[in-house]
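Lab meeting notes turned into a lecture example. A postdoc, R.K., suggested we walk through two folding results consecutively so the class can see how the record format repeats. The first protein's sequence and structure tokens come next.
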Amino acid sequence: MKRKDILRKLEERLARGEINEKTYLEIKARYDSEPEEPEGSEAPEAATPDLGEAIGAVVAQATAEASRHAGHAAHAVGEALRAVDFSGMGTKLSEESIKILGSGVVTGNPIKTAEFRSAGSARVQGPLEAKTARIAGSCIFDSDVHVEEFRAAGSTRIAGNLKADEVETSGSLQVDGSIQAEQISSSGSLAVKGGVDAEEFRLSGSVRIDGGLKAEEVDIDLQGASKIPTIEAEEIRVKATGGFFRIRGELTADRIEGEEIELEATTAALVKGDEVRIGPHCHVDVVEAKELVVHSSSEVRERRTLS
């Protein structure tokens, strides 16, 4: 069969959907690379490769290549698991998760998994990279934690930085580095030696952030002595808990700056915003605002009007 006949049949099979465009182009390229056939020449039938065989060869080659890539992927997963050491009767490892039930230690550099889960007493020696991390009880991370979802109930300490899309904690969370997240919701005690950068920051309890807080929205219900040197956000709300004569929380800050600010039980050097409401039990050195309301129980030493 001549080359032009083969290519014509190939085009017909492409039109009928029997082969895809990639297969068509690969086979066509093979024939285009061969020398032009003289007019009237008849090549022996056996010398011309069968069209079905040619297509089959291309498909077989593609299948073999896909199998080879799958083998590489499986090998990579196996290598990742072999790079993780663990101890403890309740520690379980699989390709999808690391689970510590009771007591256990996991070591790696880094430790990669889809899900990290601990219930009891756990220690993670090395940076953790996962989609989700769920902690119940006590857990110590000796390095950074980088996850999409971080949920902890109990006592958790992170010696490095915490980076996540969503952070939800109840109990005690201590971070020696910084926190970067889209949403942070904390109930209990939060202590961060670095800074906190989030879109939404909601806390009920006590908080200390040495490096300052930046967010779009800040909502704090004070239930203990708290300190944040600087707070920068569009909307800031700080509320005291307890009765009017016996509050259970107080916030100390150097500078609080936003568009809409509502404060209670707050001591600050400077508060600056468009709309500022100074509620009960506040002591502020300077307030700069377009609109300002001050509760009778609070003290503002200097008031400046923003233009």
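The second example is placed directly after the first for contrast:
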Amino acid sequence: MFGKLFSTAVLVSALIAGAVAKPVQLNRLTARGDISFDNWHGISSFDGFDNFYGTDNFIGTIHSQTVVEQDQELVCHSESIEIVQQRLLVIQELAKRIITEQVCEVETQTVVFEQFHSSLGLFSHDLRRTSGLHAGFDAGITSHFGDFFDEDGSLSTDDFGFSGADVGSNTVVVGGSNWDAETSPASVASAYSAARSAFYGSY
């Protein structure tokens, strides 16, 4: 009986040791847990994925900005909030079209959307002045807005000639906001908290 239990224990120990010792192919780049999506799970549409923002910058964090001076300062002017929401919704739905029309693999659709969503979310820190960056936009990138479509209305497939690493190199800061260094941090924090509460309350 003891011999049988001993043999079983040895067998289990050997299996555990084998499982622990077995090399596992992890698609990780650094000890911080950054994940490479190049050719992820052998899906060809992931080829070159990491080249856009860099292998250790999935969400497209901007590390520096170069503010460009305009011949005439760009100043904000308040429009009806519905007008603003309409335009943002157009951009939202255009992003959906690009992802679903120009990528066929649902795995790649999922990852590239999460990257887009996370990268855009970083702008929240700029607006709240908690990132150390200007709350501006890259004029070089936005200049391609008119290049989205071919003459027949289909989505263009032209290479615009930039990567995610270029974001921030032609930053334009819009003037005229009501930001006050003394009072705005608190009022903006309150606005952010209210927005997050509304977000979680929507589920």
